[in-house]
Amino acid sequence: xxxxxxxxxxxxxxxxxxxxxxxxxxxxxxxxxxxxxxxxxxxxxxxxxxxxxxxxxxxxxxxxxxxxxxxxxxxxxxxxxxxxxxxxxxxxxxxxxxxxxxxxxxxxxxxxxxxxxxxxxxxxxxxxxxxxxxxxxxxxxxxxxxxxxxxxxxxxxxxxxxxxxxxxxxxxxxxxxxxxxxxxxxxxxxxxxxxxxxxxxxxxxxxxxxx
Length: 211
Hints:
Strand order of the largest sheet: 1-2
Radius of gyration: 18 Å
Number of strands: 4
Structural class: mainly alpha
Strand content: 5-15%
Low-confidence stretches: none
Number of helices: 9
Mean pLDDT: 94
Distance between the termini: 30 Å
Order of helices and strands: HHHEEHHEEHHHH
Largest sheet: 2 strands, antiparallel
């Protein structure tokens, strides 16, 4: 049975995974009620573990203290759950397809014309179709990783569906859902899954290759 995270951890961890996010998005990703989410955020703000930014784009972000506290909570949870090996195995499977996916994103954003790389204007339908086909292949490889993680922790439970939804939109011609930031594009979900794995295992992204 998948381990269920405490509500407080879900909120602070959502900020770690998403980086900068508004309250409705935290509510959606955690499945908690908005008053409960706001209560945790206010407490984190009072202890200087989160900051709230107002403006055209308003939202919450972790401070260094908040990141450290969140990491401590996630590390303690992993020890309590006793499933480090399960998550570590899934992480290695993810790494096995990560570089290929990043290359795929580059091929979506750029293409080679007369030996030079140029911004892909998506006028070459055959090129785009081939890249989308490869995205489907990448999806087939990452879905078992998502399933294994969902068996370990409930907070990993929705990644498979999020990938499927983004892939369907890309295949249906809404190409923003491939790599566009600030929406639930395939690349956005991939980045968040990667960050979730790093946080869960206590690995800093900058030190990943050295590990």
